[in-house]
Predict the structure.
Amino acid sequence: MRVFEEYAVLTVATLILVTGVYAFKFPNNFSFGGVTGLAIVLSAVIPVSAGTITFVINMLLLVVGFMFLGRGFGVKTVYVSVLTSAGLSLAEILFPMRQPLTSQPVLELMYAIVLPAFSSAILFNIGASGGGTDIIAMILKKYSKLDIGVSLFLVDLGIVIASCFVFDTTTGLFSMAGLLAKSLVVDNVIESINLCKYFTIICNEPEPICEFITKKLNRSATVYTAEGAYGHNKKTIVITIMKRNQAVELRNFIRLNQPTAFIAITNSSEIIGKGFRGFH
C-alpha cells in the first residue's frame, strides 16, 4: 500500500513538472538549466522539437546511468525520467503550442520556476529525482571529487549563456533569473513540506497534556522535572514534536485547560526519527 502511495505521489509530481515545462518553459524559450533547458536551445538550431530532444537525452542518460551506477541507480528516478519524457512528447501531440499562453513573460516565468521547483521538492522529499542532469550528478558523486553543485551550476550557466546567442538578450536574462530563483524555491518548498513544531511546555500538571498528546494526537513526548531559578518551585517540562495541524490542536488544548503553562514553540524543518523521516 505504501509503495502504491509513493508512486501515486511520484506521478502527480511528475505531471506538475511536465505542465510547468511544457506550458510555460518551452513556449517562452526559458533555458534555465537541466535537460529541458538544453533541449530548448538545441531545438532552435536543429529541426526537432524540444520534447523529442528531451526524450532522447533522458533515455541516453538512463542508459549511461545503468552503465555507471548499476544497482545504485534509483528505480524511482527511472520512473520519473521516463514519465517526464513520455509526458512532454505526448503533450506536443495532444496540445500543440505555437505561442505562449499569455502576453506576460514575467508571469509565465514565475510559473515556469514554481511548478517544476515544487515538483522537484516533492520528488527529493521522497527519495527520487527528475532524472536528467541529476543522473550526471550521481555519476560525478561516485567517480570524482568534484563539487557537484558547482559543476551542475556551471553546466546550467553555460546553457543560459547559449540561449542569449541562440535567441536574444531578453530571453537570456529571463533564463538567468530563472536559474538563480530555481534553487531558492526548491529549498523553501522542501523546508515548508517538512516543517514541524517543537514544543517546550513548562507546567505544573503534565498528565492531562501528555494524555492529549499520546491519545488524541498519537504522538509521544519527553517529560522531566526542573526547578525555577527565581522561586525554586518544582516544575515539569514536556518536550514534543509534531506536524503543524497537530500543533494548533495542542496549543489550543493547553490554553484552554492550563492557561498558566509556559509554552515555547520553535519551527524545525529537519526531524529524523521514529514517526518522522528515516523510520517507517
User: Anything to note?
Assistant: The chain has ten helices and six strands.
